[in-house]
Every structure is written in C-alpha cells, then in structure tokens.
Write a structure and sequence with these properties.
The complex is a heterodimer.
Chain A: H1 11-19, H2 25-44, E1 47-49, H3 52-60, E2 71-75, H4 102-109, E3 113-118, H5 152-160, E4 165-170, H6 176-182, E5 185-188, E6 208-213, H7 216-226, E7 255-258, H8 269-284, E8 288-291, H9 298-315, H10 334-345, H11 348-361, H12 366-390, E9 393-396, H13 413-417, H14 424-429, E10 433-440, E11 446-453, H15 458-469
Parallel strand pairs in A: 2-3, 2-4, 7-8, 7-9
Antiparallel strand pairs in A: 1-3, 4-6, 5-6, 5-10, 9-11, 10-11
Helix pairs in contact in A: 2-3, 5-6, 7-15, 9-11, 9-12
Chain B: H1 5-14, H2 24-38, H3 73-77, E1 83-84, E2 87-88
Antiparallel strand pairs in B: 1-2
Classes of the chains: A alpha/beta, B mainly alpha.
Chain lengths: 491, 99
C-alpha cells in the first residue's frame, strides 16, 4: 500500500511505518487530508480549525516516539498554541492559547501531530454537535443525521478517515455517545487519570479528556501516552495509571454484568440487538454473564443537570469580555460590558445551562436542588460500587437510540439531555466507560454498546472491547490482526 | 412552572445575561421542565448519603514554587480584547477620580 493510502492504517501501524522510514510524517498526516477529507469534509464538517503550515511544522518534529507521525484531531476545547481554541463559541472567537494543554504536550512529545481542531457543541454543552457557532457536524454514515455530541467533530473525523485517533472531552457522555453514533471506539477514563490542565472547564468534577480510535489497541496506545499525574492539575492521581498493555489478552475468566431492566422500555430494537450480539461475542471469548437489576438512568440525568449546570455557571463566569476573545464594543461601564459581551457571545444552550446553574446555586434553592443532587451523587456512586462487586464490568447501551436527525431535539432540551441516560452515571461515579462498535444496522447506521468499569478498570474494558472487535474469536485477539480501515462498501 | 418570568429576570441578572422579551416564556418553560424532571430525586432514599466531595484521595499538591510553564504577563494578556503593558484594559470603574 502506498504512503497516500496510509490513512487506512491503525495509529500503531502508522507510527511503526514512520519510525522505520517507509512513510514520512508529512505523508502520514497529509494522506487523511488528500484522500478522505477531500471527499467528505465539506459535507460532514468535522473540523473547526485547520492550517497546512501548522501541520507541516508539527510533522517536521514528529519522527520519533510511540505515536511518530500520527495525526490527531483534537476537540476545540483543548488548548493548543498553533491553532485557535474557541470551544465553538463566539465569545472565544479567534482566541489562541498561550500554552498547550498537558495532553497536547504529551501527544507532541510522543511524536503525534495535531492535524486540526474538531467541531463540538459550544463549550461541550449538547449531544448532537448542532450547538456550534460554526454550524453543525453531520454523521458521515447518513448526512441527515447528527454525529452525536458534544465531541461530534473528532468522532466523525475518525469515522470518515481523516485520522486514526482523536481527542474529545466527556462530562456526561460527550465522547462515548458520539463514538456510538459514528461507529468508533470512545474511552472516558477514570476521573483523575488524564490531566485536565488546558481543557477548558465545563463541570470540573465530571470533565475528563477522552480518546477516539478505530481499534481497541489504539485506545490503549493513547491511554498509555496520555495518562499519569500532572503537577498542573491537582485532581490527577499521584499513583501510576493502570497498565493497559494486556488489551489483547482476551476475556477468559472475566464476568460481565447484564442489567437488562435498563432496556426493558425506551430503547430502540437495533440497540438491544447490538447488546445481544456483543454479549454473545464476549461469551464466545470465554467471559461469563451475570444478570442483575441496576438503578434506572433517570436519577443520574436529574442529578447531573443540577451538578453540571451549577459547576458550569461558575466556570463560565470567567468569560466576561476582559481576558479572552470577544468583547461587546459599545459598553460604557464594566457591568454593561459583562452583560452585553456574555449575551452576545454565548449561544442558546450555554445560556440555558448557565441560567439553570445560577438558579440551583442561588439563595433559597441551594439546599433543595444542589445539595440534594450532591447527596444523590453519593448514592449513585454506591450503586456502581455494589454492581462491580458482582462483575468485572457492565454491558449496556451507549445511547437509547441510533443517531437521530438534525433538528429533531434542538428545541426540546430535556429530550436532548435524555440521550445521555446511559453515559452520565459514570461521570458522577468517576469511573471509566468505553464505547465499542458492533457492526451496522441493515439501513447502514453504526451500532454500538458501552462497557462500564470500576475505578481504574480500563484494562478490563479494553480487553473486552478487543474481544468484541474481533467477533469473540480468540485466534484473532493478537495485535497483528488489525484490518485496514475502509468505508463499508454499500453506502 | 417552577420558574416564572420575574425569577428568570432575577437569575439572568445574577448570571450577567439578558434574555430578550420574546424568548422569556420559552426559557421559563424549558428550565421548569428540567427542574420538574429533577424532582424525581425525591423518590430516591438518601438516608445516610452525605454530599459528594469530589477529589481523588491521592491528589498531588505540587511544591509551592513557580512552575516551569508559568506565563509572563505579556503572553497572558496577549489574547485579551484590550491590554496594555501586560495589564487588561476595562472601562472606567470609578468616576471623577481626583489625582
């Protein structure tokens, strides 16, 4: 295969080819732009900012390391010195960070190249990537449907072939839900395992940087590169991140939870078929199923939209027209400057959440809403602890539906919020979750499941993800069997 | 509805936001729907559940020394709408200030 086709490789293989000199870093980075992006980007709109000169500069530095020459699209809320960082918001129009986020610094040190900034819902608030000041991203498998959100751009880019891996952020499912809608892997790590320094804060107790990839092995490769303590983020853990190098060991002897009460109603048939398919693959590979009931996701959604909006209203107070980006010109006094800048700079969903968060924190309502939610969060964390006494990980949907259509939920915030019903709990509990694709529906839409693990359970999640990826066939678990990426031919 | 127009105006002022007249009813309805949904938490038994305090048990506190990655004032203010000599510029806060 020629260097021009190297966009089809896994990140692991691509970096190998770059290190041995078969493909240059520049060719590795540009192959995604010259091939798939030329065909798809104008229609899908996964990228918010890109710059050929910045890619070339990055490629020149990228010949060594475990990710040598690997292009990575990173969500527009991760600070980068060589591209704007705007969170897809007018209020940060044109703003450039004076520093790289820690995860970006670690990517570059490993030889990776930032190939651009991915589109997203403004400030990561949304589940469809429709709330972006740059316009929506579309699902590459069906342009009338959403790619999920809020990290829809990075997910769609990995799905259509721009780059083998990408970074997003996951506060309530913003990596796992778009990964499911776009048919790629998506990991939200254990809270405190990936640095948040340079990730623009939304809900600080919930936010984690997440990883998109087409193969379980590439998720492991990025997790190894990015994980670990950071002196600039006091919520990272001092102890070593869990060892995921055994991602191809298989699942013999592991048990997985099957909380079937969660999909007794309100979940589409194709999603349940995906779950049954994934369970069969895990069992074929030697895992054992344990059936039990689990707490319905409505409680997590209710808790989340009180806690996350409260944290957001506080975190987003810094955007006031003084320090960053956009300022409303016509303001004679400071208070008017704040109000006019924020009113003109934030989009509708961000305003809704700031108002809700301000309300639940305001005098007279704090106990009834915020404090109750913080107590409910404790209860939810206990439910997860108890579930992981019965199994090594749980198998459940990533989202209750297949990708929905553009415009379907933009005027109905609650319906949009409920599309995160299966992902939000892990953010409240601080535990990891992995979305794993399981084939396609007959109509050609991606199907996926979610695996939830205990704290530092990434090794088990990746082993299970790999087992599902290879159809539960133990003979194919090894790392030399990555298929090359190609679009499903019947589209 | 949990949130009425007067309440909306009060919280918008706290949040330094303006909600245009024509959007107020829809905003009240949407926020109230979410709050009513959150009422489901009342069905949860929270006996013995202390409020979550969220920080990993083994969080590192670094030494109290400037980090190698610290920003100087000129770079820190470079992305501001208006700045001068490493300071952020804002409209006058105090009027008629005699020297």
């Amino acid at each position: 295969m020629s260097a021009r086709e190297s966009w089809r490789y896994s990140a692991a293989r691509l970096s190998n080819e770059v290190r041995r000199g078969a493909v240059t870093a520049m060719e590795a980075v540009e192959s995604g732009w010259e091939g798939p992006a030329r065909e798809w980007e104008a229609r899908v709109h996964a990228v918010a900012h890109h710059d050929a000169a910045a890619r070339a500069a990055g490629s020149r530095a990228a010949v060594k390391g475990p990710l040598a020459g690997v292009p990575v699209l990173v969500k527009d809320n991760l600070c980068t010195t060589d591209y704007p960082t705007t969170c897809a918001s007018r209020i940060l129009a044109g703003w450039r960070s004076p520093y790289d986020a820690t995860v970006i610094e670690r990517l570059r040190r490993a030889g990776a190249v930032v190939t651009g900034k991915g589109n997203m819902d403004e400030f990561a608030m949304g589940s469809s990537t429709e709330f972006s000041c740059y316009g929506p991203t579309r699902n590459p498998y069906d342009l009338t449907r959403v790619p999920g959100g809020s990290s829809g751009g990075p997910a769609a880019a990995v799905a259509y072939g721009l780059c083998p891996v990408a970074l997003g952020s996951d506060t309530g499912g913003s990596v796992r839900q778009p990964a499911a809608f776009c048919g790629v892997f998506g990991l939200k790590p254990t809270y405190g395992r990936l640095s948040r320094y340079g990730l623009v804060a939304f809900g600080s107790s919930l936010d984690q940087v997440g990883i998109f990839a087409r193969h379980a092995g590439d998720v492991a490769l990025l997790f190894e590169t990015l994980g670990g303590a950071d002196p600039c983020d006091a919520t990272t853990r001092r102890t070593a991140a869990p060892d995921v190098s055994g991602w191809d060991r298989g699942v013999a002897g592991l048990t997985f939870g099957w909380p079937a009460n969660l999909w007794a109603e309100g979940v589409e048939r194709e999603i349940i078929e995906g779950l049954e398919d994934a369970a069969a693959r895990l069992e074929r590979a030697g895992a054992r199923r344990v059936t039990f009931d689990f707490m319905p996701g409505e409680f997590a959604v209710a808790t989340y939209y009180l806690v996350a909006t409260a944290e957001a209203s506080s975190n987003l107070a810094r955007f006031d027209g003084v320090r960053y980006g956009f300022r409303h010109d016509d303001s004679s006094d400071l208070r008017a400057l704040y109000t006019r800048t924020r009113t003109g700079g934030f989009g509708p969903e961000v305003k809704r959440r700031i108002l809700l968060g301000t309300y639940v924190l305001s005098a007279g309502y704090y106990d009834a809403y915020y404090l109750t939610a913080q107590r409910a969060r404790t209860r939810i964390r206990r439910e997860y602890d108890q579930a992981f006494e019965k199994c090594d990980f749980m198998l459940l949907p990533a989202a209750p539906t297949l990708p929905f259509r553009l415009g379907e939920k933009t005027e109905d915030p609650l319906a949009m919020y409920l599309s995160d019903i299966f992902t939000i709990g892990a953010n409240l509990a601080g535990t990891p979750g992995l979305t794993v694709p399981v084939g396609m529906t007959p109509e050609g839409l991606p199907r996926a499941v979610q695996l939830l693990g205990r704290e530092d359970g990434e090794p088990e999640l990746l082993r299970a993800g790999r087992a599902i990826e290879v159809g539960g066939e133990p003979a194919r678990l090894g790392r030399e069997t990555e298929r090359e990426f190609a679009w499903p031919s019947k589209r | 509805m949990a949130i009425h127009r007067e309440e909306l105006i009060r919280i918008a002022e706290l949040a330094r936001l303006e909600v245009p007249e024509e959007d107020r009813d829809a905003m009240c309805r949407q926020l109230s729907e979410v709050l009513e949904f959150a009422e489901s938490l009342r069905r949860l038994d929270l006996e013995g559940c202390e409020p979550s305090v969220f920080a990993p048990a083994d969080s590192p506190l670094r030494d109290d020394r400037p980090d190698a990655r610290r920003l100087d004032a000129a770079r820190a203010t470079a992305g501001a709408p208006e700045s001068e000599d490493g300071f952020f510029l804002v409209p006058p806060i105090v009027e008629n200030l005699e020297p």
